Amino acid sequence: xxxxxxxxxxxxxxxxENLILSNVDVEINKxxxxxxxxxxxxxxxxxxxxxxxDLPLSEGEGSIVxxxxxxxxxxxxxxxxxKLGVVFQDFKLLNDRTVKDNLLFVLKATxxxxxxxxxxxxxxxxxxxxxxxxxxxxxxxxxxxxxQRVAIARALLNDPELILADEPTGxxxxxxxxxxxxxxxEINKNGRTILMATHDYALLLKYPSKTxxxxxxKVFEVVQKSA
Length: 227
Prior knowledge:
A six-stranded mixed β-sheet has the order 6-7-8-3-9-10, with helices on both faces. Strands 2-1-4-5 form a four-stranded antiparallel β-sheet, covered by helices on one side. The chain starts with a strand and ends in a 5-residue tail after the last strand. The protein contains seven helices and ten strands. Helix 6 (174-189) links the parallel strand 7 (162-166) and strand 8. The protein has a single domain, classed as Rossmann fold (3-Layer(aba) Sandwich). It is an alpha/beta fold. This is Phosphonate ABC transporter ATP-binding protein.
């Protein structure tokens, strides 16, 4: 096997009986930063959901961070998600607990026990996203951009091999989107692989990178014209 961290061959993606994408051939290698673009309703979210086990892969071949998507069993999904960091458009933070407690909750849920190790990990990931001084705040006390930074920190907790970012700047204004993008690019520069679904074409122009497009039930690579 090559350096591929994600590989789909002749895969078809369904939502219940509806065919969303067919003949999908995609390869993402370790260290890549890849965009997934396409209009609303072209299958970006279904594609992402298949990758983190929300939708089953019933046709073709697929492997992600060492898991075979065709053979993925329900009980393996938590293990798969530990090797993935997933960042959503709407942050999905727990409003009734502080930033630190949000992260602590995830660590405990994924089997961490040692208090000092947990504290140190939380400090480390918050430092990476520039939120270490705000660990005592509640999500509702933070701006949208700050909440998304915390969500990215949460995605980094278990040292994921691949980060799936589903429209991470979708709810943010252009300036904040750029700030969040800078955080993601920095994380990528440090060796993390990132697949980011977006409809924000301004970001693609500002930070050109390999781009996959969903259109007409297909996924294909777009060759970006150099400026």
